[in-house]
Design a protein that fits this description.
The chain is α/β, with parallel strands linked by helices and 386 residues long. The chain binds pyridoxal-5'-phosphate (PLP). The site of pyridoxal-5'-phosphate has 12 residues, from helix 4.
């Protein structure tokens, strides 16, 4: 029986042993390991030891994961593909699009994760034209997208929260602009999913990719692609495989039948061990609740931004709640060295370019924020000052 009783943030934190040894503020790279996820992985190992090849059980676990994730974002299970990476989801959509018609433009913002740019740049060989929505420093307003979206735009792939500076784009406004021009929107929610409530219908996007190893607190190997129900049967990806079929276990080789659901965007054997981990993590997140997670994260983000600003450091992430997620980036003169110095003080953070990335989840608390700020003050020579 799955325990569904509610957890407070303190009870939630106590399930992550790393906090006995470290100040962990690196969920933007990898969520911390909970005893719940560890137990789920043990369950997988046990099933393998006991039964050898219980594929029926394993496929059922993947289906439970599909249903649990769908419910967590307000989607139907038929709208979710379970994939090994976000890149696989982006490729499945890109490979299904036709760039030969009057719409061949792909509008990309400058805050995308590299994989998003790479997949679409690769489509230039298939007739795609890339148009860039240009950022102004650490800001990328929907206006910059509006300037390049027109009747030639086929799709607007857009990250919600930027992995490099923590900027959050107004996706609902961007979707309204793209749809008004007749273009699709593909959201990359990887740097936000799990850090608060997510209602994919309210955002109005056509497609969304995200994965489990960051704020969804599980292991590498599981990602999701959401495809709005009305769109599913318009697409036949050329990146495909046997799990994209109506019934993979029919083992037919003479015909390609497309699953009527988003399963058609899947390809090979599902990532079973990671699916166990992901389901354990989703159950745990359900027990604290995404609204509680969001409140805790926002409180910690504000505490950190105020303290870092008061210390004279340059906070690159926008301060307005609607313009950031759980990641805050502070400018450093040598961010990789700063990350090593913090590690020596027991703090796990990360760097991208000259930015120090500190990110929060519901397992973090005020003491974590204060420990990071004290350490930054001690290493002030490595920080850019206003
Ligand atoms: C915003 C964003 N999108 C995509 C990815 C890559 O996802 P995957 O490796 O699952 O393709 C990352 C990984 O850090 C990311 O931060």
């Amino acid at each position: 029986m799955t325990d569904r009783s509610r957890l407070s943030p303190d009870q939630f934190r106590s399930r992550f042993p790393i906090f006995e040894r470290r100040v962990y503020v690196n969920s933007c790279s990898q969520g911390a390991l909970s005893t719940d996820v560890e137990a789920s992985l043990q369950e997988y190992i046990h099933s393998w030891h006991e039964s050898g090849s219980p594929w029926e059980l394993w496929v059922e676990e993947v289906e439970r994961l599909r249903a649990a994730f769908a419910a967590s974002i307000g989607a139907g299970r038929d709208e979710i593909a379970v994939l090994p990476s976000a890149s696989a989801g982006i490729n499945a959509i890109a490979s299904a699009l036709d760039f030969a018609g009057s719409r061949s433009h792909v509008v990309l913002g400058e805050f995308e994760f590299p994989t998003m740019a790479h997949v679409w740049l690769a489509q230039q060989r298939r007739g795609a034209t890339i148009r860039w929505a240009r950022a102004a420093g650490d800001r990328l307003d929907v206006e910059a997208y509006r300037a390049v979206i027109d009747e030639r735009t086929l799709i607007v792939p857009a990250t919600h929260v930027c992995f490099r500076n923590g900027h959050r784009t107004d996706i609902a406004a961007l979707t309204t602009a793209a749809h008004a021009a007749g273009a699709y929107v593909l959201l990359d929610d990887y740097q936000r999913t799990g850090s608060g409530p997510l209602d994919v219908r309210a955002l109005g996007v056509d497609f969304m990719v995200t994965g489990c190893l960051k704020y969804l607190l599980a292991a590498a190997g599981v990602a999701f692609l959401y495809v709005r129900r009305e769109l599913i049967d318009r697409f036949e990806p050329t990146v495909t495989g046997w799990f994209g079929r109506v019934n993979p276990f029919a083992f037919r080789i003479d015909e390609i039948d497309w699953a009527a659901t988003a399963n058609r965007f899947e390809s090979g054997t599902p990532p079973v061990p990671s699916a166990y981990a992901a389901l354990g993590a989703l159950h745990l997140l359900d027990r604290i609740g995404y609204d509680v997670v969001a409140r805790q994260v926002e409180r910690l983000v504000q505490r950190y931004c105020s303290a870092a600003g008061a210390a004279g450091f340059v906070v690159r992430t926008p301060p307005e709640p609607a313009r950031h997620g759980p990641l805050v980036v502070v400018d450093s003169v040598d961010a990789p060295t700063l990350v090593s110095r913090l590690a020596a003080r027991g703090i796990v953070a990360s760097a991208r370019g000259n930015g120090l990335r500190v990110s929060f989840h519901a397992y973090n608390n005020d003491a974590d924020v204060d420990a990071v700020v004290v350490a930054l003050e001690a290493e002030a020579a490595l920080l850019t000052r206003r």
